[in-house]
Amino acid sequence: MPRTTDKRVRLVDAAKKLIHEQGFNLTTLADIAQEAHVPLGNVYYYFKTKEAIAEAVLANRARELHEALQVFSSAASVKERLLAYLQSEIDNVEQTVKSGCPIGSLCQELAKQGGPLATGATQLLNDTLLWIEKQFQAMDMGDHSRTLARQFIATIQGHALLTNTFKDPKILEQLKPALSAWIDSLAHTKKVTPSVEKMEEYA
Q: What is the pLDDT of residue 192?
């Protein structure tokens, strides 16, 4: 196996950037080589195919995700942990305005074609979902935890899509008070409520 070098890191970083900005299918190895300032012929020393470099990008994103979730997990309360996750999305809102959510948009694109890359992208979202579900379990939401986790991530992803579509960062930024109030309502009532109806009360 080729050893890890600065060139390999640059290639993965370049691929991650370009795949997010223009999608996997429109990104070529030549694009990646140019962005990384690496001769195209050298790319094949590290990655034989575009799929191989995409796998490295997914591994990179997985590592970043797990490191971030560890940081969020250090917060004292469930609400603080969930809002820390949301804040990380808000902190990258300019990137979302330009190209959408890095993980969400990748899942959406790759799911259409299936295969190992689609499975890898799905795992990123699933790992996030499992972490969020664990937070709701800590709120004693029991069997409803999975549903609430899906509701939480779907709300954020939906707002990210609207933020990207309308090029308006406020759409995602203004979500925080609504989700904060929703989490409070769950903590107080211990009941699951329909997402659309309940969110409208706090929006």
A: 60
